[in-house]
Amino acid sequence: MELFSAKEVSKSFANHQALNKVSISVEEGSIFGLLGPNGAGKTTLIRIINQITGPDSGSVWLNGKPLKAEDIDQIGYLPEERGLYKKMKVGEQALYLGQLKGLSRRDAMKELKIWFEKFEITAWWDKKVMELSKGMQQKVQFICTVLHKPRLLIFDEPFSGFDPINTDIITREILQMKKNGATIIFSTHNMESVEQLCDHIALIDKSKKILDGATQQIREKYKSNIYDIAYRGELDIHGHVLAGKYNILANEQNGNGNKLSIQYPDGSNSRELIRDLVEHVEIVSFNEVIPSMNEVFIKVVKQNA
């Protein structure tokens, strides 16, 4: 079931068009990757969803209804540029932000106690934000974003400033929130995180959506008939039928650790490749290479250029 959608959204600033008829659909209980190069229009769309600005044309919908000002309490937003008050105490600020999102002081305190204990940061309660490291501030702002248990969460570069341990902690929390029914829009330049977290993605470039779909299906779509093969035996590529029939990308022969990377042309198939190989060597492993989201991102953006 669709929780959020943007339909034909356009937005211009002076002589710059930030969004040009962009449409996305985010399923309830999913993690949706909003991707694109710097300046593509992602932040403008996020600002429209948060009602910081409005579209010139098009519409945004939440739970089947046009998004309204009062719906903001159903949204949690973690911006790339963090916005905590530096001279305010951590606990006092977290309570204040929780109440701004509709929680009573009592409920905000109850939820904060759970999160501060979970993240082992109870000792930070009376510290000023300016006394914390960037990573510590990130944790506090993450808590403030999710505290009121919004239906729609928007994370813009949530791992910025985190070391690998804290990145893993936040990743696990995001996956748990999804498991508990939260719907998440996730914007990042880290394609490894996209592969790990996102069910679907949309790629925006130069104000237009140029790609969208299920993450794994997109990776499958952009594969290019390349296989990595481990084998035992000797393979003289130059004098072998393979040389004229396939594109040999690499052939490393190191005793029992021989590896071959090969691409077959359109019209051939993997069974034919296996048949051509087994006549000469023993195949240990045979794996099709599926492009990473990083490779897909670069390819599609270059094509759009």
Brief summary of the model shown:
Helix content is 33%, strand content 30%.
Folded structure, characterized:
The chain contains ten helices and 14 strands. 33% of the residues lie in helices and 30% in strands. Helix 2 crosses helix 3 (105-118) and helix 2 packs parallel to helix 4. By secondary structure, it is of the alpha/beta class.
Please render the helix and strand layout as text.
Layout: E1 2-13, E2 16-27, E3 31-35, H1 42-49, E4 57-62, E5 65-66, E6 75-78, H2 90-100, H3 105-118, H4 134-146, E7 152-156, H5 164-179, E8 183-187, H6 191-197, E9 200-205, E10 208-214, H7 215-221, E11 226-232, H8 241-245, E12 247-252, E13 258-263, H9 270-278, E14 282-288, H10 293-304
Parallel strand pairs: 3-8, 3-9, 6-7, 7-8
Antiparallel strand pairs: 1-2, 1-4, 4-5, 9-10, 11-13, 11-14, 12-13
Helical segment tally? 10
First-to-last CA distance = 35 Å
Mean pLDDT: 91
Radius of gyration: 24 Å
Lateral arrangement of strands in the main beta sheet: 6-7-8-3-9-10
Total strand segments: 14
Strand-pairing-aware structural class = alpha/beta
Q: What string, H for helix and E for strand, traces the elements in order?
A: EEEHEEEHHHEHEHEEHEHEEHEH
Work out the oligomeric state of the chains in this entry: single chain
The level-1 CATH class of the largest domain: Alpha Beta
Q: Give the CA-based shape.
A: elongated
Biggest β-sheet description: 6 strands, mixed
Percentage of residues assigned to helices: 25-40%
Low confidence ranges: none
* Fourth-tier CATH superfamily name of the largest domain: P-loop containing nucleotide triphosphate hydrolases
The domain count comes to 2
CATH architecture of the largest domain: 3-Layer(aba) Sandwich
Fold-level CATH name of the largest domain: Rossmann fold
